[in-house]
Amino acid sequence: MAVNTEALVLLPALLCDSRLFRHQIDALNGQLPVIVPDISTFDRFEDMAVSVIASLPPAFALVGNSMGGYLALEIVRRVPKRVTHLALVGTNAYADPPEAHQKRKQAIRLAEAGRFDQFIEGYVQAALYPAHVDRDGPLMATMAKDLGPDVLIRHQKAIMGRRDSTELLSAISVPVSVLCGSQDVLSSPSVHQDMAQAISGAEFREIENCGHLAPLEAPEVVTQALKDLLAR
What we know:
This protein has eleven helices and six strands. It has helices at 22-28, 45-55, 67-78, 98-112, 116-127, 133-147, 149-160, 166-169, 189-198, 214-217, 219-230, and strands at residues 8-11, 34-35, 60-65, 83-89, 176-181, 203-207.
């Protein structure tokens, strides 16, 4: 592990919290401090980034899954010299496409209409590899319900308003790992390959029989990938 890394910062996916990374926290917390910031009160990634950065030590490694990846790239944009390592998992560097806005607006309408459970059911089915729904779906649903519909609304607004980060990728010079599930229907392996190719020296890994939430669905694989990344 690089001697200047003072903490491992884990940024969760939509409607997830530290429980998404429970395996990684248990395995790595003895190696260096692990931080999962609370970003639940924000509806803009710019504001999330300012808050998170202010709470962190001078040098840290970043791991972002899905929405957490969008935030990780915003943090890299703002304080690139403080980031020592970067893992992008089940995410992408693009601005939110117009065709995705209708789905996000529909999610907001469901939450506002008191049909949050309906959104959760569809989200679990979309995010997880089908064989993992029975195993991992209950925890995913519990995290979502604990965070609640107001957080969903705020974070959907943030995702719709996120900046395109593709121009940032070529400027990243720290060790990077790009991980994705082979069956991720929300962010395809080809998108991850494009990100990895745009980042000098990035390592790309496709995880077989895994969906969008690799830290939960393939915990041992992700933990080992992070150990390998921190050793670079």
